[in-house]
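pinging the channel bc i need a second pair of eyes. not urgent but kinda urgent?? the chain im working w is below, pasted from the shared doc
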Amino acid sequence: MAGDPTLPSQDGGPAAANLALLPPPQTMSLTVADVEDIGPSLRQIRLAGDALRGFRFAPGQDLMLRLPRREGDLVSRRYTIRRADPVQGLVDLNVVTHGDGPAAQWAAGAGPGRPLPEVVGPRGKITLDDPADWHLFVGDETYIPGTLAMLEALPRRASAQAILELGDPADEQPVLSPGQAELRWLWRGAAEPGHAGLLLEAVDEIRLPRGRGHVYIAAEVSVAIALRDRLLARGLSRDQVSAKGYWSRGRANASRGEPDPPV
């Protein structure tokens, strides 16, 4: 999943200075090619279309889907690209299925052959900070596809850590990283998602490596803010921390596909 940054001081990112190098977004008409449940709360949805042949994206970018809702109109929802096959014209999205919003309803009912007449992408400007000496990824299950896509794109020399919070250990996903990646899963059990406690505790325990690093955060809006502020307090500069609010606890994302920041 993905949502635009809603953190005013952090709406840039490692790619912000290199926007001209990112692939330009395009509007596409795609079709659901395959659906697979890859965990209790995760469904992988494969999209296909001629527009995806030759498709380029930077790891961490997303697609914006225009989805119907009960009222009969359309809303935008953004999903991080897990992987793409530009030869076959395929893209995989990993969708969190809990909740009863238009995105969850679409994901629950998605099946092969179902059309998506309006998909825009690739979108998003937070991608890998390639010159960084080390990388740290922190978030909840909505950040699984983005984290794994970026970990797998790191060069072999790269040092990386990732901390991801899940409700169920069965949602853990394999990562095929060529670098020195250390992936830690946190389980909140029956606790409600969208609280910062577990992730803050884990971040406090991390010993940040030497050199210039970069931290990538995506979670519930208030959690992303808390994590960002905690890491800034440890001496990282603002251009070393990229934070995104993917969703907002107790409130549906706006029709544009982005969560509103907390009041």
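so The two ends are 23 Å apart (CA to CA). and Confidence is low (pLDDT under 50) at residues 8-12. — does that match what u expected or am i reading it wrong
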